[in-house]
Amino acid sequence: MPSPTLEFARAGGAPLGTPTKITQGSRTKGGIGESTLRPDGTLKVTGEFAYSSDMWHEDMLWGQILRSTVAHAEIVSLDTSEALATAGVYAVMTYDDLPTDVRRYGLEIQDTPVLAHGKVRHHGEPVAIVAADHPETARRAAAKIKVDYRELPVITDEASATAPDAILVHDDRDDHHSRHVPHPNIVHRQPILRGDAAAAAERADFVVRGEYTFAMQDQAFLGPESGLAVPDDDGGVHLYIATQWLHSDLRQIAPVLGLPESKVRMTLSGVGGAFGGREDLSMQIHACLLALRTGKPVKIVYNRFESFFGHVHRHPAELHYEHGATKDGKLTHVKCRIVLDGGAYASASPAVVGNAASLGVGPYAVDDVDIEALALYTNNPPCGAMRGFGAVQACFAYEAQMDKLADAVGMDRVEFRQLNAMEQGTLMPTGQPVDSPAPVAELLRRVKAMPMPPERQWESSEGVDVRQLPGGLSNTTHGEGVVRGVGYAVGIKNVGFSEGFDDYSTAKVRMEVVAGRPVATVHTAMAEVGQGGVTVHAQIARTELGVTQVTIRPADTQVGSAGSTSASRQTYVTGGAVRNSCELVREKVLEIGRRKFGSQHPAWATAELLLEGGKVVTGGGEVLADLVDVLEDESVEVEAEWRHRPTEAFDLRTGQGNGHVQYSFAAHRAVVEVDTELGLVKVIELACAQDVGKALNPLSVLGQIQGGTLQGMGIAVMEEIIVDPETAKVRNPSFTDYLLPTILDTPIIPVDVLELADDHAPYGLRGVGEAPTLSSTPAVLAAIRDATGLELNRTPVRPEHLTGT
Amino acid sequence: MDFLRPACWEEALAAKAEHPTAVPIAGGTDVMVEINFDHRRPEYLLDLNRVGDLYEWEVGEDSVRLGASVSYTTIMENLRAELPGLALASHTVASPQIRNRGGVGGNLGTASPAGDAHPALLAAGAEVEVQSAGRGTRRIPVDDFYTGVKRNALAADELIRAVHIKKADGPQQFSKVGTRNAMVIAVCAFGLALHPGSRTVRTGIGSAAPTPVRAEAAEEFLNAALEEGGFWDNGRIVPPSVAKRFAELCSGACNPIDDVRGTASYRRHAVGVMARRTLTWTWESYRGTAARTEGVA
Known about the structure:
The complex is a heterodimer of chains A (about 800) and B (about 300). Chain A has about 800 residues and is α+β, with helices and mostly antiparallel strands. Chain A has 19 helices and 33 strands. The longest helix of chain A is centred in the C-terminal third of the chain and has 28 residues. Chain A is globular. Chain B is of the alpha+beta class and about 300 residues long. A 5-stranded antiparallel beta sheet of chain B has the order 4-5-10-6-7. The longest helix of chain B has 24 residues. Chain B is globular. Classes of the chains: A alpha+beta (about 800), B alpha+beta (about 300). At the A-B interface, strand 22 and helix 19 of A face strand 11, helix 11 and strand 14 of B.
């Protein structure tokens, strides 16, 4: 069968993957700008990579979590005696067995019980934990724990959450958002007011309104939550764990265990994907508690079913939008209200609200805005971080609006966007100027200029190839009812942690001679979750230090925090930290060189010196010394923190403030074919154009864009966690009924990469990972609307929506 | 849980007679899912993987005797001419790995309304060969085999040995709706077989009623219409009004539910669309004008 192919193109027409000229280290092979291969790539595709679930320890026990079978209930009684009496069971722990008074945790708001305390607030909440000598024994023992629930009414949406007599999901809030929210069942609310939207609406010749619904998406990383906690002799514990941020876990785990952070040692183990779903703790504390209680190593591995309950999901949202334009097509104003369902615990909801609000208008210039975003506390599954983080839901809605408004004005949908596109210097709704390239109109131009895939590709002289048709191998059409549609969308995502967060990273870099060759060692706590950070760090070290051989140390908490592998930030921030530490190492190496050889050549004192190809060279390329001779037996080591420019909090009433540090832009053109009779969709092509500032590893950039594009397509046409509105229980916690795109659902994804440097960022780079997830979804929706003429205000589109059944 | 491993068919029957609650397992593509989810914890598992003749198939004069454990992959690769509908259905089963393990015996044993083989078996016409140690062999017409949601006509001491499926004497089609383009459980499915020899059309509907069912009223209507118009002889195009009525009657044969995979009304609608399309494809093929279909088997 014809496999989805990739087409490479970039600014200037040079194929992506061609090394570009770089100012430093161009003579050192494997530096930045090259598509060096991932060290973990072959292992992963051959099945040899050791994931966190593959760990084993002599004499280890297996942990199991008992989870609530109902969404909202008081725990009337909890009887663990039968479980405890089971042969092979070493420990059963409930809330009452927790060792300290710190019994809740959370990324920002500590509202999540380690184990349920008298009440459960969502389906699948941890109630008790068991350690046994066999996983099946642990499972069966957990099933013997008797929990008597007295069910409470469930809060499932804005109406039930803010009703006058609504039960408070948390009746003891004292977090800093609790003081400004209009209702205790609202986690956080962020208005953004700029100009005068009401007055501007008066000037509008055309006004369009829309109500949009975005479903709950799962990160669906392939390696379920897992880890191994090993008790240490000093009373501490060593946790081997798949996570996105070791130090954030550490900060939450240690107080619950009653241990100083120095006694909770953490080492990153093989991470099978994350997409935001490993920002929150899952089994970390439970494994440590059981290990400390039993004095034995304890391993916990979720299966897929449990994984659906074991991490937060993408917030479902209800979005209400009003857009206006003059008859010449200029936006007059945008009003919107975005209601995110945060579920039972806060997780990252406040920051998701900040993103949804500040990016709620999209990459457009409009002076008069009235935005409100909020997240609810409900009894639905907790929602938090997922690739795109609040910007995804908004993009789905504002791009549908832009199409509607273009149609109302009578303009071409792409031209209408280009006319209103932001550019460098445009003010965000927050009043913050965009101070680096914002090639929104250009990305749309590029994506529109790509050649269209041929029509009726399923037909050939041989007959019909059903793999090219909606329904695929299920053989539902041989062309009957199939209509093509085309749609466009563009989005804006912030890069890095925003709203005044001290977003730094730490890198320890060492340089020495090993076996007659100069070697660099890079040690960070960066979580490699598949994004390719370890590849990029080695490239940076080669470029900056002129060595070929770079050792990447395993990530652990023996080095300072690297911050989270999320928010498209890790290449920017930890990459920046690695570069910074390399520069400091280089200065020290040159100092040694000057001391040893300074008298031999005047350039040592006068010229700007570089390390290239294992040598100290002048800017002009003249070799001054071999690094082996400079270093001899000495080693140079630097551990330093590095941070991007500071940001500010958004004003609580007006939303004004320089809240973001960088933006990332991508545009998509979707070509779909819809079987209009059966309501089945085949996405033929999802062309993407994205500005990445500087592609440190072009192949990785391509992988990020393809992956993000596909994840965006998934929520457009199939992915949805279905929660029963009557019971707040999850109805499809399995890959049988939570559908992810297969390779046969994957369209051709031609990618056009633009590299317009952001002068504020290391190497001019821009975070890449999230932007393609934004515009992919609305582009697919727009294409389906184009094919069917239907309004389609909801993701994912299901066959019944397309057939009116 | 005891794991019984008979070395031959007779031993398997004896084991089943001794332990009537034993759950037979061959490819394990259904049973292992249930065990992994802890939906089922049988006292005994009866492993049929060592029973070699379950993997045998034989093409006879009128029918194919298909051993219960013959894999879907084998059907796709070897029996496409004799069992075109079942070969098409086999290709919609899960992934290549599962198709290498799973077989029709398992589909019949589980008797889920969503089993992909059922509509093809119903449309082609088949008999299920079952046997017990005490009472010997009997052949159950597939029309009588499905007795309820995930229930079949097997007695507790019986095992499925083979399926006798009528060899195609005319075009057959299978169509299945899922919400992605591969590896998906049926929202609903439809099988259709033309039997020029007997001048009849048979159908099978999956996932749209508590059991797999035939659309009997639709078949009767179409059989009469084709006979009346002399279509079997004159090979004319089936009039759209006939195809439409046939489709409506197929929809009417459904008794579906709303669930996470789809709504009842969508299922009725989709079965009608598939009925109309598969009738068109098979009839075009019968008339000798159809284009070949790529990518199936």
